Structure formats: C-alpha cells, structure tokens
C-alpha cells in the first residue's frame, strides 16, 4: 500500500480553490475528497531525485465555506489517520469581502528533538489550542527558518552519519537534496499537532538564512568564501531545490504554478516515466548564480488587504561593484505591488525592516566601513564584524532601505491611490518579538514594524543580553555618531520600539477588521496552552 511520507499540507487557498500538497513513498494518484460536499480532485505524483510529490488543486468551491476533506492514494484512504484524536482537516475558502481577517505568523522553529533544548514550541501549542476549539486563523505565514540546515538535532545528525563516508565534509551540516527531505520530515511530521495544523490552515512561507545556511548571502565576500568550499555547490543546489518543492510551489495560485516553466518541465518528465531531479538542479544552480532568473516573492489580495511577501535572501544583488537587498528586477516588482486603494498593506520580509535604532545605526556604520569609508583595513575589519555579528539586515543595505522607504511613504501619503489605514512590516529572524512605530514624517497611514520570533529557538546568554541593551532608549547615539563620521545620511523615517522586546518563544496574530488593525503575541504556557504577551491596537 502506498503511504504518505509528509502532508497533507494545505497551501494556497482563494475564494474558490485550494491546493493540497503531499509527499508519498511511491508514484500514485492522489485524490482530495469531501464526500458530504461532492468534492473530488486528483493529481498524479511527479518524481524528484527518487521522491514523489503532488499538488492537488481543488476548485469550484464556494467563497466563505468550510469543507472537511480526506486524502486517498490509489483509492486507499490515508488521511485522516486511523484513531486520530484531532478534528477533521478542512478547507476553509476565503470570503469575497471578509469582515475580519486573521493572519498568524512567526519564524525560527527548531524541529522537535528528544533533548528539548529550545523550549516549548509555540506552533505546536497553537495547534493544540486550535484543536480544542480556540482561535483559528485564516492564514498562517511562516517568515523564515522553517528548517535549520546548519544547526542539527541529534536525530538529524544520526541520519546524515549513516550517509557520510568517514572524513566526508560537511561534518555537522546538510550536504544535498536527500538530507533536506529528511529535515523537512522531522520539522513537519514528527509533532502530530503541527502536522494537523498544517493540514487545515492555509500556509504561506518565505525562506531565511538557516533554511540554507547561517548568514546566507550576507555579502559578496561571503559568497566568494562559500564558492571556494568543495561541498557548497551541492549544498546550495539541494537547499534551493528543496525549498522550491517543499515551500515555494504552495505559495503560488494554481494559475501562477501552471505558468511556472520549471514545474511544467518536471511534470512532463514524470509523465514520460522520468525523474525531474536534473531539471530541478539546473534551475536551483541558475537561481543561485543569477538571482534575477527566479522570483520567490509573491503577493495575495484578500478583500481590502494586500499581503506582499518579499524574498530578502536569494534575490540579493551581490557583486564586487554593487550590493542590494533585492536585485533590480525584484525591486521593480516590489515597487509595482506597493499601491494604495485598500484598507491595509502588509509587507512580509524575513528580516525586520525597522530594527531597534541602536542596531540600525550599527549596521549603517558597518556597511559604510565595509564599502571603504575608513580605508581598506577598515573594510577588512567591517566584513569580519558583519559575519561575526550578523550585521546584514535592511539597515546594512542602506540604498535598499531608502528605496523601500520611498515606496511606503508614497503609499502612506496617498500618492498611489487612497492611503491604507495601516502599513505593517511582518518579520522574524532576530529571536525576539517587538513592535516599532514610525513617528515621522506624518502620513495618512499608520506605519509599524511587527516582529514575532522565534516559534522555538530562544536566545540565551551574551547575545540575549546584548539585544536587550540595544533596545534600551538612549543607546543609539554612539553608533549614529559613527555612522555620521562614515558619511551615512540619516534615515528617511523616524521610529521607536513601543512594545517589547520579548524573548519568549511566541506566535503572533494580526487581526484586520475594516480599517482597524491590531496584533496579539502569545507564548506557550504548557505544551498545549498559550498565554498572552501583549495585545495592541495599531490603528485608531
């Protein structure tokens, strides 16, 4: 009997369609059924490096309805699992004009491990709360570090040890696509509450560095160092290729996915009895060498809300002459998406756009030094500092920061249609949560930075202490002085942290009702319960 390896994952959902993603242990026909609602959709699996996947598009659904579903493989029911204690998995379509939209989000989740080194899992606790009848979001957004390819659990180490030859590098990191398949299995299958949650809440993702490797694409110098590493080419190809199948494809609408040339080629190879692994590898290699050849960013409109999810990792422009958080083509795309005539604009980026001012100023200064403001020796020192202290957020790409500010301010002033009530950046990465509010210039929109991190990977020791200090008002002046001495212009926005930081594992929910926007952070009190950290009104 064919079995589910991973899934089902409920991915893109619109008013009339939904996409269900699965991995199976053999080629088969996958069906998504709702006998009571007359739903029946099917797709054949396709093969990548010996693994079998399917994305089943369920269409002709009614807006704003809830449809329980099951999954069969070659006619045998495999989901829900026998003796499951969780409610039925459902597809809940988006309403045409939702009265309230709830978007749960967060980042940085270490997989379950027997040692339990990283605290209680906020995503797992959220699943338990949902299963018990608690808050149910319309969307789950995971903004980076869904998996850790370079900080391994004992279970992942045992798996790769079986596959490595004695002395083969890398010793304590993933090496290729096959390693990634097991890492995703540990992340999304081992915890029953998380597996059920992902089967019943539409989930969207974007990668950050640990999905590939710490400090991925931090600078041109970093890329040169990694390119000189013998095992890196297989690693980056496996990381990007696995992201494409396990995360990226589900972010797309059925129409967008059908137009994807790589997806078309992979399906065609499987229809002819082949394996699309080589096609995927060629694409992943090209996407790494030429960022403009692939787009990982995407946007979705739900009633009066637009969500823009920005890839701030793979799309970076890093050459000996220029550096940018996004390449030119990606910036043109982002500029086109930043429009008014809606109630709320959400811009999700794995890396916070607005950091605590001390860190922002430090990264401004470090970038200027690395670019030669204080000579070649200063540039050498700055590059070592950048990699050692992870100084590679939007503030470390100051030209990119200023371009985004121009777009956001144009929307907030009503220069691109009626100004939204709120413009919110949703981010993770930093392993603590906070809210920052823009205080000037005056605009018609409330502009905020909402950070929720981590789901499960708490900071400890010196790093935690340093970030606490950096968030204290009045500590930013020293690095601002250094930035001025390096001839860095003041930022076009002024902002301050008004809530947090909190260093708990956490999950946040942004709730949008009409022109009202509020955000709520919660932390796991037990493995199955959440307690509130803060509930804040952003508008009004």
UniProtKB/TrEMBL annotation:
InterPro entries (UniProt xref): DUF7800, Metallo-depent_PP-like, PhoD-like_MPP, PhoD-like_sf
Protein name (record): Alkaline phosphatase D family protein
PhoD-like phosphatase metallophosphatase domain: residues covered: 122-224
Any Pfam family hit: DUF7800
Source organism of this protein record: Actinomadura keratinilytica
Domain DUF7800 span(s) in chain numbering: 1-91
Annotated CDD domains: MPP_PhoD
SUPFAM superfamilies listed in its UniProt record: Metallo-dependent phosphatases
Gene3D superfamilies to which the protein is assigned, alphabetical: PhoD-like phosphatase
């Amino acid at each position: 009997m064919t079995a589910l390896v991973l899934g089902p994952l409920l991915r893109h959902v619109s008013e009339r369609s939904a996409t269900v993603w699965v991995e199976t242990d053999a080629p088969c026909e996958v069906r998504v059924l709702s006998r009571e609602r007359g739903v029946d959709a099917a797709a054949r699996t396709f093969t990548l490096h010996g693994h079998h996947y399917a994305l089943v598009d369920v269409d002709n659904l009614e807006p704003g309805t809830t449809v329980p579903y099951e999954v069969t493989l070659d006619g045998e029911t495999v989901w829900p699992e026998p003796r499951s204690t969780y409610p039925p998995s459902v597809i809940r379509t988006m309403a045409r004009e939702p009265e309230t939209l709830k978007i749960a989000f967060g980042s940085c989740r270490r997989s379950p491990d027997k040692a339990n080194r990283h605290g209680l899992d906020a995503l797992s606790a959220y699943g338990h709360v949902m299963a018990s009848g608690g808050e149910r979001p319309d969307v789950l957004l995971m903004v980076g570090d869904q998996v850790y390819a370079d900080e391994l659990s004992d279970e992942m180490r045992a798996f790769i040890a079986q596959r490595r030859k004695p002395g083969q590098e890398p010793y304590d990191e993933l090496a290729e696509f096959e390693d990634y398949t097991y890492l995703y299995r540990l992340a999304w299958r081992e915890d029953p509450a998380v597996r059920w949650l992902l089967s019943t809440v539409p989930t969207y993702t974007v990668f950050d560095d640990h999905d590939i490797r710490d400090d991925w694409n931090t600078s041109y110098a970093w890329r040169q160092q990694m390119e000189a590493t013998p095992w890196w080419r297989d690693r980056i190809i496996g990381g990007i290729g696995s992201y494409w199948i396990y995360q990226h494809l589900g972010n797309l609408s059925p129409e967008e996915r059908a137009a994807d040339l790589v997806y078309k080629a992979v399906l065609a190879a499987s229809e002819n009895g082949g394996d699309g692994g080589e096609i995927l590898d060629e694409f992943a290699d090209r996407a790494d060498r030429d960022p403009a050849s692939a787009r990982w960013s995407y946007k979705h409109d739900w009633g009066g809300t637009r969500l823009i999810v920005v890839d701030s990792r793979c799309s970076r422009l890093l050459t000996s002459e220029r550096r940018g958080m996004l390449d030119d083509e990606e910036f043109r795309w982002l500029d086109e998406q930043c429009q008014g005539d809606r109630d709320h604009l959400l811009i999700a980026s794995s890396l916070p756009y607005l950091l605590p001012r001390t860190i922002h100023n430090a990264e401004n200064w470090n970038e200027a030094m690395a670019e030669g403001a204080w000579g070649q020796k200063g540039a050498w020192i700055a590059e070592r500092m950048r990699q050692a202290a992870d100084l590679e957020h939007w503030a470390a790409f100051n030209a990119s920061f200023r371009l985004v500010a121009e777009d956001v301010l144009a929307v907030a002033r009503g220069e691109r249609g009626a100004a939204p009530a709120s413009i919110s950046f949703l981010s993770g990465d930093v392993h603590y949560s906070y809210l920052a509010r823009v205080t000037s210039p005056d605009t018609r929109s409330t502009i905020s930075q909402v950070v929720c991190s981590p789901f499960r990977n708490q900071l400890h020791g010196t790093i935690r202490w340093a970030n606490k200090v950096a968030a204290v008002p009045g500590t930013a002046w020293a690095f601002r002085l250094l930035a001025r001495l390096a001839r860095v212009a003041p930022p076009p926005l002024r902002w301050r942290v008004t809530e947090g930081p909190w260093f708990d594992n956490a999950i946040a929910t942004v709730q949008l009702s009409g022109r009202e926007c509020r955000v709520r952070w919660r932390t796991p009190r037990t493995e199955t319960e959440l307690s509130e950290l803060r509930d804040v009104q952003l508008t009004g």
